[in-house]
Design goal:
Blueprint: H1 17-32, E1 37-38, H2 43-52, H3 57-73, H4 87-90, E2 95-97, E3 107-112, H5 121-135, H6 139-144, E4 146-151, H7 165-177, E5 183-188, H8 192-201, H9 207-210, E6 213-217, H10 220-227, H11 245-254, H12 256-262, E7 266-267, H13 271-283, H14 285-300, H15 310-313, H16 322-332, H17 336-346, H18 352-364, H19 376-385, H20 390-406, H21 408-411, H22 420-423, E8 428-430, E9 440-445, H23 456-470, H24 474-479, E10 481-486, H25 500-513, E11 518-524, H26 530-537, H27 543-546, E12 549-553, H28 556-560, H29 582-590, H30 592-598, H31 613-617, E13 645-650, E14 653-658, H32 659-664, H33 685-691, H34 699-708
Parallel strand pairs: 3-4, 4-5, 5-6, 9-10, 10-11, 11-12
Antiparallel strand pairs: 1-7, 2-3, 8-9, 13-14
Helix pairs in contact: 1-2, 1-3, 2-3, 3-7, 18-19, 18-20, 19-20
Biased composition (Acidic residues): 659-668
Region (Disordered): 275-312, 659-678
Pfam family, one: CRAL_TRIO_N
Length: 709
């Protein structure tokens, strides 16, 4: 997209024809005196650049030079063959210019994903180059601009590979340098996969491109407001007949001589040096690039920028997957407050790169590299969760993949659409507002969870899904998570969710397998037998986690001591709107391809079963007994946990607070697993139910009757 120039600008209405002719001649002489540029110098061609640069000769020359340097460095992104060699590619009907112009006099260029599936990215880029060259040979198009109509119908996971950072950078730069003063992109028929793609690409795009992109989904009247209906075919709600691609493609062949000549033009300055430098860069390999990254990090320690910054921990060497690059970009752009917090609380300091390399070495010597992601953004989750203790982080990632392989009925989160009906029940949500310590707050409401409609496995999987979504945010990795469990409405039928097997799996997620810093668990409206339920968990819990469990009953004021009202929904006396997970839910569903990709790295077994045959065709069962083949690591209390600090943000001031003290000593009375408070033994659970006129022996009969009615 064209850049906006704020100085020395001249509007077309403010410059005479004579002055325009003088500037065209001035630019022509400048180019002829420049030995590095072998390009056209006719009036129409030069006018492209002068108009988009508001008749500023210097800016026009700069744009020309940058564009042809880009072509020299990336020749496959530009047309480089005779037009007849593109005849077969044109038959895919992926790119076409519509007849006529829109209501603002602009050409409309249609790009269809449905026809692009069997082409490679370079073919499509070269088709774009051909069409743009043809359209920009028209004075009316140069003056009025171009509209790109991007039809995402047919966009598939296969095309996600096109979004590699290097590709996005070249495409974005090319779009910025095109000599088009007015260009807009209108996107129609987008999907959840498209939304995921946009979330990956947008952070890398220039602001000028972002400002000119419009999303219409299937709302064609919205599209008509910008383009009008006269230029559009019937399939887009227009007044013209359906597309006739052969007729439209003839436009290119009318300009065949001109297009064939255009491939000879280019930038010729110091080609030998450029090629030599390029080869030298590629010959270094991964190891030398890592050394270079570490040297940069060491240099940065002498500057004002914190050496532990994720900008230095996250290199670009291993970032192939677009999802990994998206998360790496979040880390690179992490605010200074969070970097300081990571250093003070998680030991994310000068040794971070060394720890990352140690982690990589352990993974390379294990079978993990065959199971899933091993990019730096992903590994950083585990290092942060274990305060950069490499051995503990490695054990956690081993356990993470072991759980996915051996308990897929609980840990297999893709595709999220399988859980859509449950998510729509408004059972759970990551609240949009973090607490005053910067921690994410996750709410789960038992009352909304119908035990006759929601399988036990779905409840567990939905919680793992919520964690997998939240952990992508580096702020959550650093700040941690607070869980608010509202047990209002807990009935006897919910007992199926409380088996020893699920209890143990839950504890394993919290303590051993998932790279989240669980800072506190707050329970509201717990029943009279809650102590007995928690006593089931107690044997498996580390003391650190025990000290973070708080029961508040119906006392909301007790809850406010830990979670401020300004981040809670109104149902809990908070100042936020009523509980509504629609935005959070839709974000997860829109990113379905991310979760599928997350579990499709493995070459064998459940994790790589893209057809989901094993999960869907095999009846899942949950055993209360733990198999002998399970591997468990000894529960080790982190020796430095009492040094954990949290950050309280009050206006612009930042105060570090000892959260271990906050969660364990100050409000001792609400902690049911505190050493100072004894919970009733588990053996009394049945007695308590009988006392309150519940019968454990009629559970199956009641469930059958309820389902039948």
């Amino acid at each position: 997209m064209p850049e906006v120039h704020t100085q020395q600008m001249l509007n077309d209405n403010m410059i005479t024809e004579e002055e325009k002719a003088q500037k065209i001649e001035e630019l022509r002489k400048t180019i002829e005196e420049c030995p590095s540029l072998n390009i056209r110098t006719d009036d129409i061609y030069l006018k492209r650049f002068l108009i988009c640069c508001n008749w500023n000769v210097a800016d026009a020359l700069t744009r020309i030079t940058k564009l042809f340097k880009l072509k020299f460095e990336n020749p496959k992104w530009f047309s480089n063959k005779k037009l007849t060699d593109y005849r077969d590619i044109l038959k895919h009907n992926a790119k076409i210019m519509l007849h006529g112009r829109d209501k603002k006099g602009r050409r409309v260029y249609l790009s269809r994903m449905l026809g692009a599936g069997n082409l490679n990215l370079m073919d499509l880029a070269q088709l774009d180059d051909l069409w743009m060259e043809a359209m920009l040979n028209e004075v009316e198009t140069i003056e009025n601009g171009i509209v790109v109509l991007l039809d995402m119908n047919g966009y598939s996971w296969k095309m996600m590979k096109w979004l590699a950072p290097g590709n996005v950078k070249v495409a974005s730069t090319k779009a910025d340098l095109l000599p088009v003063k007015h260009m807009e992109v209108h996107v129609v028929n987008s999907s959840s996969l498209m939304n995921a793609a946009v979330s990956l690409v947008f952070p890398i795009l220039s602001q000028s491109i972002k400002d000119q992109v419009y999303f219409h989904y299937q709302n064609f009247p919205s599209l008509h407001e910008h383009l009008g209906r006269e230029v559009l075919p019937a399939e887009y709600g227009g007044l013209n007949e359906n597309l006739k691609f052969d007729e439209l493609a003839n436009y290119l062949f009318k300009h065949e001589d001109h297009l064939n000549k255009s491939i000879i033009y280019g930038y010729t300055s110091e080609p030998t040096k450029a090629i030599k430098e390029k080869k030298k860069t590629h010959s270094k390999g991964k190891e030398n690039r890592l050394k270079k990254e570490e040297m940069k990090s060491n240099k940065s320690s002498k500057s004002n920028s914190p050496s532990k910054s994720p900008r230095h921990i996250i290199s670009r060497s291993f970032l192939i997957d677009p999802h990994a690059e998206f998360e790496a970009e979040l880390n690179r752009n992490l605010d200074m407050t969070w970097r300081e917090k990571a250093e003070k609380e998680l030991n994310e300091n000068n040794e971070a790169i060394t720890k990352m390399k140690q982690m990589r070495k352990l993974i390379a010597e294990s079978d993990i590299s065959q199971k899933g992601r091993e990019d730096e953004a992903f590994l950083l989750r585990f290092l942060r969760a274990k305060k950069f203790d490499v051995d503990k982080a490695f054990k956690m990632i081993q356990k993470y993949y072991w759980m996915k392989e051996h308990s897929p009925e609980l840990f297999y989160v893709s595709p999220p659409s399988d859980l859509k009906s449950m998510l729509e029940m408004q059972i759970q949500c990551m609240l949009p507002q973090k607490d005053n310590h910067g921690r994410q707050v996750y709410v789960f409401r038992v009352e909304k969870c119908d035990p006759y409609k929601v399988p036990v496995e779905h409840v567990f999987r939905s919680n793992v899904l919520a964690l997998e979504d939240a952990i992508r945010d580096p702020e959550t990795q650093i700040g941690g998570l607070v869980v608010l469990l509202d047990m209002a409405g807990l009935g006897f039928a919910h007992a199926r969710y409380l088996s020893p097997h699920l209890a143990k799996r839950t504890v394993e997620v919290v303590q051993e397998a998932f790279p989240m810093r669980f800072k506190a668990f707050h329970i509201l409206h717990e029943p009279f037998y809650m102590d007995a339920i928690l006593s089931v968990l107690k044997p498996f819990l580390k003391d650190k986690i025990r000290r973070r469990i708080h029961c508040h009953g119906n006392d909301l004021n007790s809850l406010y001591k830990h979670i401020p009202r300004d981040c809670l929904p109104s149902e809990y006396g908070g100042t936020q709107p009523p509980f509504d997970n629609s935005i959070w839910r839709q974000r997860i569903l829109n990113n379905e391809e991310y979760f599928i990709r997350l579990e499709s790295y493995n070459d064998e077994g459940m994790i790589n079963n893209n057809s989901f045959d094993i999960y869907h065709h095999k009846k899942s069962s949950i055993n209360d007994e733990i198999g002998d083949e399970e591997i468990f690591y000894e529960a080790e209390d982190d020796a430095d946990d009492n040094k954990s600090l949290d950050v309280e943000i009050d206006g612009n001031s930042i105060n570090y607070i000892d959260t271990e003290t906050e969660d364990s000593e100050e409000y001792e009375s609400d902690r049911v697993l505190s050493p100072k408070r004894k919970a009733p033994p588990v053996e009394t659970l049945e007695e308590m139910f009988l006392k309150h006129e519940f019968s454990t022996f009629t559970l199956e009969e009641k469930e059958f009757d309820a389902v039948k009615t």
